[in-house]
Amino acid sequence: MKSKKGYVSFVLHAHLPFIHHPESDDYLEESWLYEAISETYIPLLTNFQKLVDEGVNFRITMSMTPPLLSMLDNKLLQRKYIKYLKKLIELSGKEIKRTAGDERLNQLSKYYYDRYSNDLHLFKDVYNCNLIEAFKHFQDIGVLEIITCGATHGYFPILYVNEKTVKAQIAVGVQTYERYFGRKPRGIWLPECGYVPEADKYLKEFGIDYIITESHGILYADPTPVYGTFAPIVSPGGVIAFGRDMESSRQVWSSINGYPGDFNYREFYRDIGYDADYDYIKPYIAHNGVRVHTGIKYHRITGKTEFKDYYNIQWAKDSAEKQAGHFLDCRTAQIENLSQYMDTPPIILCPYDAELYGHWWYEGPYWLYILFKKIYYDDCNFELITPSEFIDKYPNMQVSSPCRSSWGANGYSEVWLNPSNDYVHRHLHVAGDRMCELAYLFPDAKGLKKKALNQCARELLLAQSSDWLFIITNGTMVDYAKKRIKDHIGRFTKLYYQIKNDEIDEEFLKDISKKDCVFPDIDYRIYA
Question: In sequence order, what DSSP letters do the residues of 372-395 get, joined into one string?
Answer without folding.
Answer: HHHHHHS--SEEE--HHHHHHH--
